[in-house]
Amino acid sequence: MPSPTEETWKQSEKGYRETWNFPNCVGSIDGKHVSIKCPKNSGSEYFCYKKFFSVVLLAIVDPCYKFTVIDVGSYGRHSDSGIFENSIFYRQYIHGKSLLPDKPLPGTEEPVPHVLIGDEGFALKTYLMRPFPRALATQDERKTNFNKRLCRTRRVVENTFGILAQKWRIFLRPIDCDVDTAIDIIKAACCLHNYLRTKQGTAILTPESEDENVPMRALITHRPTNRRSTTAAFETREQFVSYFNQ
């Protein structure tokens, strides 16, 4: 899987802006537990909150359901945010840097950072947007509209995991081999997924055209996190809220 370039992020932002109506978004991010056979002498390191042994597949996906970046092999007990912030991708592209230079949202003048979008498993950052808590969103129509737009766009990564699990049925049961081999299998499946998406075309799927139960049964999502966020992160999200409620 090639390392993403500036042109990769620009094409991804264009796709999310034109297809999913979410400007300045360069990727949808999520992490899933991939069930594995209990490794020898591993203690509770691979034991996740769903009461089975797993390694984590963390992925950033483009608007055409292809993996842009993957991180495979973290312990099942770790959180999405912790895995992301300890990944090579984070150190190379995020920490102290920006994926692309800031630019104004359409019809506005104030520059806004380019962002990834994720669920409640990630902390809110200037480079990563997450939805408002449900209790807050139900009391504010502006926040509800933002959550709807973000969750609709974030379906891209959920759909991608669903396509992956449907195509490669090994994900429907615990992978019965040592951890290193399991990691290689997961990486190979992701690369083959991208190859098939490229060869077979990149038609945009609707939620109704997929079996939504597959990703939930085969690949399990992470728990929400309540980590504190910075004032700058809240201000960035508020800029998107204002844009989506114009």
Account of the protein in words:
With 246 residues, the chain is an alpha/beta fold. The chain is 41% helix and 16% strand. The chain is built from 8 helices and 8 strands. Strands 1, 2, 3, 6, 7 and 8 form a 6-stranded mixed sheet that branches. A two-stranded antiparallel sheet has the order 4-5. A hairpin with a 6-residue loop joins strand 4 (103-104) and strand 5 (111-112). Residues 29-194 form the DDE Tnp4 domain. GO terms for molecular function: hydrolase activity; metal ion binding; nuclease activity. It is found in: Nucleus.
Largest sheet: 6 strands, mixed
The rounded distance between the terminal residues' Cα atoms is 39 Å
Morphology call: globular
Strand tally is 8
Tell me the radius of gyration.
Answer: 18 Å
Salient structural properties:
alpha/beta; hydrolase; HARBI1-like; 246 residues; 41% helix; 8 helices; hydrolase activity; metal-binding; 8 strands; two-stranded antiparallel ribbon; six-stranded mixed sheet; nuclease activity
Quick summary:
The protein has helices at residues 6-19, 80-85, 88-94, 134-137, 141-167, 179-200, 213-218, 231-244, and strands at residues 25-35, 54-61, 67-75, 103-104, 111-112, 115-117, 128-129, 219-221. It contains eight helices and eight strands; from the N terminus they run αβββααββββααααβα. α5 (141-167) packs across α8.
